[in-house]
Design a protein that fits this description.
This protein has about 260 residues and is of the alpha/beta class. The protein has a single domain, classed as Spore Coat Polysaccharide Biosynthesis Protein SpsA, Chain A. The protein contains eight helices and twelve strands. The strands form three sheets. An eight-stranded mixed sheet has the order 5-4-1-6-11-7-12-9, sandwiched between helices. Strands 2-3 form a two-stranded antiparallel sheet. A two-stranded antiparallel ribbon has the order 8-10. α2 links the parallel β4 and β5. The longest helix has 12 residues.
């Protein structure tokens, strides 16, 4: 069963905001954010999933005007960011600083712009994990069930140990098969929640040695001593990186209204 989101409209701590970074540059799927999925650009479909989560304000951080215009035409909120920013995290931070300079939003959820079939409950789950005491950052993981994924370097694994709460502190992230021995492995899902001060610190830090070695940005936070809480969920969302992925997304959303 998919994770169930807390009922929208309840009391929320931290005045959360969901930010979706998006840019046109994609080597495998050119102009990916504007790819049509069931009558709407992909970025609009992602924006709709974020709105359905009911966490709070949703803003698209767009590197190009074409993306911002598509979101606004659909009734959404978008802000233009520097197209030369090095990462989605930097794009999210610039957007938050531009639209909320007074710091009203103290919790920020970063949702990738290529997840048009995302279960909105996963966004809420990311937020729920972040409000635990001591957390700087939150993210998600699902148990690996496909044997091929255990050794696939493109499947990032989070090393942690879940208890009955289904939320645990991240010890490490890696492309290797880890930890060693019998037991479950966990597929990391790249949706992040940040306390505002944690995101400000994160983007100010230089790339760390393990981050550059594994090519995993979240290791910068761990090397800096930041605490990342990981919530266990039951589904891995489809990321659209290729034409084949795009067709899968179209098939999955074919029953939704355009």
């Amino acid at each position: 069963m998919a994770e169930q989101a807390t009922k929208a409209g309840g009391d929320l701590a931290g005045h959360p905001i969901v930010v979706i970074p998006a840019r046109m540059a994609s080597t495998r799927l050119p102009d990916k954010p504007l790819a049509d999925i069931c009558g709407a650009p992909m970025i609009v479909q992602v924006w709709r999933r974020a709105m359905e989560a009911g966490v709070g304000r949703v803003v698209v951080a767009a590197a190009e005007a074409e993306i911002a215009n598509a979101v606004r035409e659909a009734g959404g909120e978008a802000v233009l960011t520097d197209p030369d920013l090095p990462s989605g995290s930097d794009r999210v931070w610039q957007a938050v600083c531009d639209i909320d300079p007074d710091g009203h939003h103290t919790i920020i959820v970063n949702v990738q712009g290529d997840l048009p079939t995302l279960d909105p409950a996963l966004i809420r789950r990311t937020y729920d994990a972040l409000v635990r005491p001591g957390a700087d950052i939150s993210t998600l993981a699902a148990e690996i069930s496909d044997a091929e994924e255990r050794t696939n370097q493109n499947v990032v694994k989070v090393v942690t140990s879940f208890g009955e709460s289904r939320v645990a502190r991240a010890l490490y992230f890696t492309r290797a098969t880890a930890p060693w021995g019998d037991g479950p492995l966990y597929h990391h899902i790249g949706i992040y929640g940040y306390r505002r001060e944690a995101l400000a610190r994160f983007v100010s830090l230089p790339p760390s040695p393990l981050e550059m070695r594994e090519k995993l940005e979240q290791l910068r936070a761990l090397e800096a001593g930041m605490a990342i809480e990981v919530a266990l969920v039951d589904t891995v969302p489809l990321g659209v990186d290729t034409s084949a992925d795009l067709e899968k997304a179209r098939a999955a959303l074919s029953g939704r209204p355009a």
